[in-house]
Amino acid sequence: MSDLEQLTQALARNLKRWRGERGFTLDALAARAGVSRGMIIQIEQARTNPSVGTTVKLADALGVSITTLLDHDRSPQVRVVLPGQGVRMWSSAPGSEARMLLGDDRRGPVEMWTYRLEPGDGTASDPHPAGTFEMLHVTAGELTLEIADDRHLVPAGGAVSFEANVPHAYRNEGAEAMEMTMAVSIPPVRGAEAPR
Hints:
It is a single chain. By secondary structure, this protein is an alpha+beta fold. It contains 5 helices and 10 strands, in the order αααααββββββββββ. The strands form 2 sheets. It has a 6-stranded antiparallel β-sheet. Strands 4-9-6-7 form a 4-stranded antiparallel β-sheet, with no helix packed on it. The longest helix is centred in the N-terminal third of the chain and has 20 residues, at about 5-20.
């Protein structure tokens, strides 16, 4: 089984499990996540490989990390991720990418990512649920961080944190590759009622 097939099967199994544990019907999860009922059915039947954006919306709606939805072999104590073993969640033609390294749900979902953006490249994110917090550490190049209508420049060695419940984007407007590590803390889901 290929890595992609393994991830598709794990996502199908885990999405169904977490939807059941939260007590969400297909319609309730669709409303919470802003993802169509049909797409959720296809994912749960392992008939499609959804985009990163769709996976993030489902994870946010369930109050779990993306790692939890994609994990096929979860160990409870120690987890070591060796170089090159993170799950590539996004990539672009110029060679930029984002990798999910770790995630945990024991105290509310927390995720750790690495990003590499080639010069002139970038990626945007929809708003996350209220209370979601991101922390970024730039290790090479310079990050242009857009949060709503504000722009912030973060040089190599610098760090930034922000509430991520507004549209935000990560861009490399410099002449060299930008690399960063990102931690995301997501508030736990309370109750199974649909949003109002």
